[in-house]
Each structure stands twice: as structure tokens, then as C-alpha cells.
Amino acid sequence: MCIVFAGFAAKVMVHRELKLRCYFALRPPGLFEATGELSDAAASVPEYVQRSCAVLNQRIRWVPELVLDARGRRCNDEAMSDVKLFGISLSSYVQGVCAALHEKGVAFEHVQQPPNSEGQLAVHPYGKVPAFAHGDVVLCESIAIMDYIDRVFDGPALSPADAAGRGKMMQWLSLFNSYMYGDLAAVVIPRLIHGPQGQPVDEEAVAASAAKVRRHFELLDKNLGQTAYLAGEQCTLADFNAVPLIQYFTLTPEAEKGLEGLGNVSRWLAAVLARPAMQK
User: Fold this and answer.
1) Cα 88–94–98 angle (5° rounding)?
2) What angle do CA 266, 269, 271 make, to 5 degrees?
3) How far, rounded to the nearest angstrom, does the alpha carbon of residue 177 sit from its chain's CA centroid?
């Protein structure tokens, strides 16, 4: 990421004494009943941040327990595997690759390390997330990684078998990463990171980006009025690539207007998020 929450996650992992707004964005509301030091200040947190806590906590429940080593990284507790995914779980792109691995039923070791750490620079030339290793094969960039996973491992196909369907999948992967990602991130980052940390938010810039997101969603809704998923009747890599960041957008105040009347997008989001691979 090219990731949404990388810098924020690194701060959470390194600084245990984060202030209320930063902590609350990561923890369920019940935290404030259990910690008297923070309970009096909970009312100052925006309501939309409170509503988002359950979803965020599900996605990043590993963060509070992380202890980084001297290289700024730590592996999870899964069994060692010759398949390794490098990058923090807060990244929407990492989440997409995780979904592809789970959908294929691939056992893997998830190495939780932030971008630009020594460990990540060893597997990605620019220190971004995700990166991936399968034996001697080392790859970076989520599209390349997901395509490799689909081609190499057994399990359900995550790409259409026909050339036209595969072309459409690749089209939506490119459209999302090239045109939609930046506008979505320009809403998600101020609302779910900067605002909760008490940093100033440029409301005009957020509003302008939200208007662009609405147009992106209208395009998606038109396409999804013809097919169940982005590339056809089959859930593919294009869907796993797009949904994690859009889910983050649904946690912002702009989501209500951004998705209003777009039933096809709402139906699609619910269908992808309901898949077992997206629940792990």
C-alpha cells in the first residue's frame, strides 16, 4: 500500500501509552468501562468511531498483544510453513491476500511487520506491504501475489476460466487500485486515523474525496446490477482486492450518503464479507 493503517499500526505497536483517541479507534467500547483512567473521556470520541470499534477490533485483534523485536517485526503463533505472508493485518491489501489464501485453504505463516521495517525491506524493494514467500519464490505487490496463489495452490478457482472473464477481473483490479483506492483512502485515513488521534482534518478535502467515492460507487453499482460479483457470477480476486478498503469506508460518517440508494453495492459487500475466508 499502499496501505491504509500502516503508520498508525506501527505507533500502536511501539507506543503502549497511546492517548484516548488513538486507543479507542482500536478497542471495543467496553474498554472504557474496564479502565477508570479512560472512562471519563469516552464521551468525547465521535459516535461513528464508537460504532466502528467492533469491526476494527475484529480485523486487528492481534495488535495490543504484539511485542516487536529489534527488527520491528513479530510472527503470529501459527505453525511454521513454507508459505509466508509479510505485512500488518491493518492493510486492506494484506487482508485481500489473506482472504485468497483462506479461500484456497492454504496454511501459511503471517509475519506481522510494519512497512519500511528492516524485515519488510528485505522482502519488498520499497518496504511496502504485502510481500509473500513460497519456498524460494518471493513476490511483492498484492495482484502478483494473489495471481500466484490462485495458479499454484489447489482449491476453488479465484479467477474466471475464460479469457473475457479473466480480462474483466484484471480490469477491475486495475480500476480499483488506480482510480478508486486513493479517493477511498482520502476519506478513511482522516476519519479513522487522524481524527481519532486528535489531528486536524481538512473537511473540504474529505468532502471532495467523498463526492468522488460516490461516483466510483455508482459505477460499481451499475456493473453489479448485471453480475453478482465484479467479474461475473463468481467471486474472484477483484472482489477480495476491493472489499477490505470499502469496508473501512463504511465505518465513516460519509458512508451513509456514499452508499445511499446503491443496493447492488450493498448486496455485493454483504455477500463477499459473509464468505468464511473474509471472517478469518
Assistant:
1) 110
2) 110
3) 13
CA torsion sign for 94, 95, 100, 103 is positive
pTM for this predicted structure: 0.77
pLDDT in tens, the chain (280 residues): 333 333 333 333 322 222 223 333 333 333 333 333 333 444 455 565 555 555 555 554 333 333 333 333 333 444 457 999 999 999 999 999 999 999 999 999 999 999 999 999 999 999 999 999 999 999 999 999 999 999 999 999 999 999 999 999 999 999 999 999 999 999 999 999 999 989 999 999 999 999 999 999 999 999 999 999 999 999 999 999 999 999 999 999 999 999 999 999 999 999 999 999 998 8
- The C-alpha cell at 232 is 461475473
Report CA 111 to chain centroid distance, whole Å. Answer: 16
With H, G, I as helix, E, B as strand and everything else as coil, classify residue 204: helix
Q: Is the Cβ–Cβ distance between 64 and 35 less than 8 Å? A: no
Q: How far apart are CA 74 and CA 63, in angstroms?
A: 11
Per the CB < 8 A criterion, the answer to whether 86 and 130 are in contact is yes
